[in-house]
Write a structure and sequence with these properties.
The chain is α/β, with parallel strands linked by helices. It is 46% helix and 13% strand. Helix 2 packs parallel to helix 3 and helix 3 packs parallel to helix 4. The longest helix is centred in the N-terminal third of the chain and has 27 residues. The N terminus is likely disordered.
Length: 471
């Protein structure tokens, strides 16, 4: 992140990583000391297991590299003692006498890797680098959350890029107002999480926050969900029911995908925002609406207004304070933090011991385009955790679309530009529509499969299906 745009959100300890090397062979200790010090690490040396444990009790250590077979305490014993002193310490075990049982025991105790002598020095350097980087990422994640203050409010919003620092600043600035907020950004950029953060930072945080996806319900059901209904208002209305506007009294209503709302519902919502009152479906009594509205959309509402698909007066009512969330491809420096956050989350859920993400896999994640944004990244990491059988996420556990080996359609030949020119935007839309239609046809109408064929998230694909009226 450029220092001219924003300061880092956390101050982290930038001392060189400290590595303890334990080996009863002096030549091996000295070799590793030379190699690792050239890499910029601080290196401590111990000639046996007991000396290593004494050193661990006196000095904080980031990574333990230990021979397994030693005359007093084994490397596994040293690792066991190290874990009692610092549960987060990383361990790489090395030995000339490889044993499956010993390796399993070391991994069970939390060793993040295992090497057999003789080993490649470059391989060791690579493994040390990725383990240290993963440890630093975890520490930055924790510091980031603490610095942002209230852990619940920001616990799932991760970022240190200039764009995300602007979002954090905006949340803190506007949260304590009652102004209506419009969150914009592509699908999967975290609009729901930002809405939650705004609510939990607001003066309404002790009252309910309710969410409604305006694109997921037909008009009649959406009206009933939002405003409630009276008994007998329609078939199946066997009793009075409060709508979300009443449930959220003095709290917050989050209206996701507001661009999908029908023209009739737009009029009714506009009245709520203007008069702060509404009627239940089938009711005559006016009900007060003391609520704060946060709306979200992945559409260009200004274009929707110009096309007559969205009311201009409603647009200005909801666009009092706009907050735009950047796509993940524009904040690549946040990808390691996000990936590490999801790794920890799913390792805990699946009860798996995966120490980190390999350098090669992380590089693939950073350079992927992420059309599905954070939601896609989370799905990819969850899949990797489920499939990975080693202590570190490797490229093979990532989907083909991220690895770059998925088949790509051949590039279409560039047509000759007509002398009079032509409408490029319309031409591109026609090509886009063609691919969407062909994917639907090939997938037998199953949108999830069609989206996979085009490397798109389901929500993005569904948006284009509606856009081109391909249902």
């Amino acid at each position: 992140m450029s220092s001219t745009t924003a300061q880092p959100i956390v101050e982290t300890d930038r001392r060189p990583a400290r590595i303890l090397v334990v080996d009863d062979e002096r030549s091996m200790r000295e070799l590793l000391a030379i190699v690792l010090r050239r890499e910029g690490y601080e290196v401590l040396l111990a000639e046996n297991g007991r000396s290593a444990v004494d050193m661990l009790e006196r000095e904080p250590v980031d990574l333990l590299i230990s021979d397994i077979k030693m005359p007093d305490l084994s490397g596994v014993d040293v690792l066991r003692a190290a874990k009692k002193i610092d549960q987060d310490i990383l361990g790489i075990m090395i030995t000339a006498f490889a044993s499956t049982d010993t390796a399993v025991e070391a991994m069970r105790l939390g060793a993040c890797d295992y090497l057999s002598k003789p080993f490649d020095i470059d391989l060791l350097k690579m493994k040390v680098r990725e383990k240290i980087e993963n440890r630093q990422l975890r520490q930055e994640n924790l510091l980031l959350k603490r610095t942002l203050g209230l852990s619940h409010q920001f616990s799932n919003i991760i970022g240190r890029s200039a764009a995300m620092l602007d979002v954090f600043k905006m949340i803190e600035t506007v949260a304590r107002t009652n102004s209506t907020i419009l969150l914009t950004g592509e699908s999967g950029t975290g609009k729901g999480l930002v809405a939650q953060a705004i609510h939990f930072h607001s003066l309404r945080r002790d009252k309910p926050m309710v969410s409604l996806n305006c694109g997921a319900l037909p008009e009649a059901l959406l009206e009933s969900e939002l405003f409630g209904h009276m008994r007998g208002a329609f078939t199946g209305a066997d009793s009075n029911k409060k709508g979300l506007l009443e449930v959220a009294e003095r709290g917050t209503v989050f209206l996701d995908e507001i661009g999908e709302m029908s023209a009739v519902m737009q009029v009714k919502l506009l009245r709520v925002l203007q008069e702060r009152r509404f009627r239940r479906v089938g009711g005559l009594e006016e009900v007060q609406a003391d609520i704060r509205v946060i709306a979200a959309t992945n559409q260009d509402l200004t274009k929707a207004v110009a096309d007559g698909r969205f009311r201009e007066d409603l647009y200005y009512r909801i666009n009092v304070i706009p907050i735009t969330l950047p796509p993940l491809r524009e904040r690549r420096e946040d990808i390691p933090l996000l990936a590490e956050h999801f790794l920890i989350k799913y390792c805990e859920q699946m009860n798996k011991q995966i120490a980190g993400i390999s350098h090669e896999a992380l590089d693939l994640l950073i350079h992927h385009e992420w059309p599905g944004n954070i939601r896609e990244l989370e799905n990819v990491v969850e899949r990797a955790v489920a499939l990975e059988s080693t202590p570190s996420v490797l490229p093979d556990s990532l989907p083909a679309t991220v690895r770059g080996d998925s088949p790509r359609p051949p590039s279409a030949p560039v047509e000759t530009l007509p002398e009079s020119g032509f409408d490029l935007e319309a031409h591109v839309k026609e090509i886009e529509r063609g691919y969407i239609a062909e994917a639907l046809k090939r997938a037998g109408g199953v949108q999830v499969k069609a989206a996979e064929l085009l490397g798109m998230s389901f929500r993005s694909f569904r948006y284009y299906v509606k856009k081109y009226n391909l249902r």
